[in-house]
Structure formats: structure tokens, C-alpha cells
Amino acid sequence: MKFRKKEILILIIILIIQTILYIFVGTNKSYLHIDEAYSYGLSNYNRIEIQDNDDFFNAWHSKDYYEDYLSVQDDEVGDFSPVYENQKNDVHPPFYYLLLRFFMNFSIGHFSKWSGIVLNIVIYAFITIFMYLILRYLFKGEKRSIEKSSILAFMSSIILASLSNVIYIRMYSLLTLEILITTFLHIKLLESENLNYKLLIGIGVSVLAGILTHYYYLFYLFILYLIFMIKYIKEKNFKLLTFYTLTMLISGILSLIIFPYSIQHMFFGYRGQGVISSLKNIGEIIPNLFSQIYNLNYYAFNGLLFIILVIIIGILIYNKIRKNNRFEINQEKKNIIKIIALPSIFFFIIASIASPWQVLRYIVPICGLLFILIIYLLYKLLKSICSENLTNILVLILFCLMLVTPLIFNLKPELLYTERKDIVQKLSDELNLPAIYLYDSQNVRFLDDILVFSKMNESYIAKDTDYTKENLQKIFENKDISNGIIVFTNANQDRDFIVNTVKENLNFTVCEYLDRLTSCDVYYLH
């Protein structure tokens, strides 16, 4: 399938518009999720946890100490060993971290959210292109197929799920791309009746990249493999089955040669054991599925999924009653739908059940595929009861509603953290006072809030400290606290007691509650 000049021009326009939108949303991202902090640290630091440093607790640190965890320093530019070593000791394969490390090299010496966001913007340019390529197969033979494929590809790139995926600095956008590439190559494999070595090599490379990005990729790949295995067995095409199976095996073996620790991660690590345990927890299956269906509605359809499903069911019932046979999808497109729908649904179910939390990121890699499938089904059903022109108008009206519902109902991408902007700015610019984090050793989520410490001039992480006058005066010895101090407390502590004790022992008269961060509360004592 070759691109025409018209298609190239349309895709360029789409990519420019979506990139501008991504930059706008990225500009408003004001904080880091703990896993995003891990993304930066695991890509460049000499250990997984900054808290494991011998000098971390009970010592004063400048903001540079924390920023060192989040950024590549001048003497670390050519050292890519943390990418591999940290993943070996963590729970994910290393490919995404290698790409992020490359982009981090454009902001040497200081943390920048744009390292991760720009990486995702680049990835999403390819996601939109491959989404368009898949849609071109679905709309093949339709009038104005280029326009229909382009508009739907564009819509899939700007739903809340996609915006969330772009600004969330983790490997899920890369996993989304690898799933799309694998799907597209398998659609091409449907067309191939003879052995196509180049195509099989392409599939092998995409499978290798997928395995080295996230283990959930295997859920999607498993169903794809079953579909083609059954297809080749039915056709008695054992030659293609053999070479196709060998392609999968070689990719799997190469992934283990490159990163043999995958076995430990998947079967013996705490996250792998957690997945197995979740799959056995029968009582949580239905609640977890419903939670992720809610997320699918909110993020993939901007809140309109159930309305769309009601319309689809209504048209199906209408066609049944009226014996309307105009709803037709040819066998070629049914096969394409099958290799998109079955792996996506299986991925959705397993990710919903197996994941430790029912949040968007675990299902986001297949949100775009489910979006285009449901919209395509709606389009075909509308065509069975309406004219071509009216169908196009109705679908465009639906898209307009999808664009305005986030504005009307204040729907936001996940983990945008716009509400954190004011407190971070207040602590780093307006106040910028000595800060003490009264840290409880039962809390292991310091990275939830490392960003704010990387912006404050000096801070002290007091681990399991008694808040006596003697201890506090020793901590703040030689520190100018005439304008007050900032106090952070963990959520599981008796915050009022702790803060009042500190206030009294340091002779402050006013305690102002400033805000709640991810794992701690912030107070201003003066």
C-alpha cells in the first residue's frame, strides 16, 4: 500500500495539529506520578531508590541532590549501564528506558518533563500513522475512504486516553505503538498466501521490541498467534505455520538473550506473583472489569461509550424487526476486525483482572483500537438505515460531541496534576524556606513527591525522629528559620499532634495548612 500525495498532506496536517495539542496539554502537566519519577531514576541513577543512599535520611540536602535522581549529569552522559542494571533489579524490561535515557540527554544537568513528553509525542506521530494504515484497510472500497480513515485516526489520537498516554511518562505509549505495528503487520499477513520473509522479519522485530517494552504485550500477542495458528491449520498451510511459529520463537529467544531477567520478573518477581495472585482472585474479577469499563468510557470515548452502545443495540434491534439486511461487512474485513478485536478484548480482560490497580494506564494500549472498532461498527450500522451523506454527518456530530464533552463536564487527562502547580510554585519560589519531612519508615513512597524537593533550596528527611526540642533544635542548628519552616508529614501519621509538637518546640506561633500532595501533607510554620 503506497501513500498518495493527498494522504501524505492530510497526515502531515493531522500530525501538526495533534502535536500542538500535545504540547499544550504537556505545558499544563504540573507534577509527577511516582512511576514517572521511577522512569527518570531508573534510566540514569546508580540505583532504583534514592532512599537507599547512605546519606539520604537525617541530613540536609540541596535541590540538586534530588534532581540528580531525575536527570543525567555531565559525567554520566555516556554511561548507559543504569538502563540495564536498574531494570534487572526492578520489574520491567529495558527498551523504553533506553529511549527515555536518549531523550534525557537533551537536558543535561537538570530535570525536564519534556524529555518524556517529547519522546511520547514522537511515538504518537507513528501511532497515528499506523492507526491510519489499519483504518485504510477497514475503509477499503468505501467512498472518500482517505478522509474517513484520516478523521477517525485523528480522533483516536486526541481522545482523553491518548492525551493521558502522551503526558504520562511511562512505557505505555511505546507499548501502544508496538501493538499497532504488530497488528498492522498481521493484517498484511492475512493478504499473504505465500511465504514472505520480509514480512515475517518485520513481525519478529516488532515482537522482540514489544516483549522488551512490557510483559503485557504477550497477552495481545498470544491471541494473535492463536488466530493465525488456527487459520494455517484449517488451511493445511503447515509451511507458513512453521515459519510463523519459528518467527515467534526466535523473537522470544532473542528477548531472553538480551534480557534474561524477564523469566525472574514474570514468574518469580513480586509483580509477576501479584499478577498470578490477581488472576486467581475470582471475587474481584467482576468489580475490576467494571472499574476498567468505566475508565474505557471516560477516557477512550470521552464519556459517550454507553450512549454509543445504546445506539448500536437500538439499530441492531430495528434491523432485526424490520428484517433489514443492508448491514454488511465482507469476509476480508471480518477477518481484519477479528485480529483487532479478539486480542484487544483479551488484553482488556486480563489487564483489568491482573493489574494491581484499576487505572487507565494498564488498558490504554488498546483504547485506540477499541475506539476505532466501535466507531466503525456504529458507522456501518448507521449506513444500514441512513444514506451515505447523513451517516457521515451523524458521525461528525458525534465527534464534535466528543470534543466538547471534556470542556462541558471538566473531564481531564489522567495524571495531569494541574492542581499541584500552585503549591509547587509557592514552595519553590514564594516561600523557599528550610523544609523538614517527618518521614515514617512505614511509608516507602518518597518518590511520589520528589519533584517538589528537587525545586526547594534545602530540605531534611527526618526518618523516625522523635520531635523533641533537643532533636529539632539540633536539626535546624545554623539554619535561618526566622521566616518560618515548611513541614511535610506522611498520611498515616498523627499529623496534628506532630505539627503542633514541632510548632511548640521551635517557638512558632502560627501553623498554616498549605496542601495535600500525593503521599504527604504540607504545613507552613512561622
What does this structure look like?
The protein has 526 residues and is α/β, with parallel strands linked by helices. The chain folds into 2 domains: 5-30 and 112-408, no CATH class; 418-525, Cobalt-precorrin-4 Transmethylase, domain 1 (3-Layer(aba) Sandwich). Helices cover 63% and strands 6% of the residues. The protein has 23 helices and 6 strands. Strands 1-3-2-4-6-5 form a 6-stranded mixed β-sheet. Strand 2, helix 21 and strand 3 form a beta-alpha-beta unit. Helix 6 runs antiparallel to helix 8. It is globular, with a radius of gyration of 26 Å. The mean pLDDT is 95.
Gyration radius (Cα, Å) is 26 Å
Count the DSSP helices. 23
Structural class: alpha/beta
Q: How much is the average pLDDT?
A: 95
Strand composition percent = 5-15%
Number of beta strands: 6
Outline type: globular
Q: Roughly how much helix do the residues carry, as a percent range?
A: 55-70%
The count of domains is 2
Strand order of the largest sheet: 1-3-2-4-6-5
What is the helix/strand order?
HHEHHHHHHHHHHHHHHHHHHEHEHEHEE
**C-alpha end-to-end distance:** 69 Å
Largest sheet: 6 strands, mixed
Low-confidence stretches: none
